[in-house]
Specification:
The chain is an alpha+beta fold. The chain contains 4 helices and 4 strands. Strands 1-4-2-3 form a 4-stranded mixed β-sheet.
Length: about 140
């Protein structure tokens, strides 16, 4: 009976460890896809983020089974409707850039969250710039 309890405990720990390993793998994969940031009211790719997008393109092309969602985000200024449109332009700008780097368009999708998913909630420029971004999420 004691051996059975030990076996069950070992099995339970291995299941938990496997679940943690899967979560860690997803976090590691996500860390390989870098966000890019935008100037106020702009959707063009800034030169300092071209290397990040090249790295993202390489990762996407090397992971043939993955699909990536480009998520456009904005800071809190402006109406919800305006920011949804701006987030969409930002996501499509990055998508187009990745396609020009050789990524198959069918591996990419876009979505705009406008100002609904801020990464920072302070009300100043040092925070707002963090919200004017595209995130790249492996699906």
């Amino acid at each position: 009976m004691k051996n059975l309890k030990v076996a069950v405990a070992v099995l339970a720990l291995s299941i938990v460890a496997a679940g943690c390993a899967k979560q860690e793998t997803k976090k590691t994969e996500a860390a390989k896809l870098q966000s890019v940031y935008f100037d106020f009211d702009r959707s063009d790719i800034k030169p300092e983020y071209q290397a990040a997008l090249k790295g993202n393109a390489t990762w996407i092309n090397n992971n043939s089974k993955s699909k990536v969602e480009v998520q456009g985000n904005c800071d809190e200024r402006g109406t919800s409707e305006y920011n949804l449109a701006l987030g969409d332009r930002r996501a499509k700008s990055a998508q187009g850039y990745l396609v020009n780097l050789g990524v198959d368009r069918s591996k990419l999708s876009t979505v705009s969250f406008g100002k609904e998913k801020p990464s920072c909630t302070e009300h100043n420029e040092s925070c707002w710039w963090k919200n004017r971004r595209d995130d790249f999420v492996s699906k």
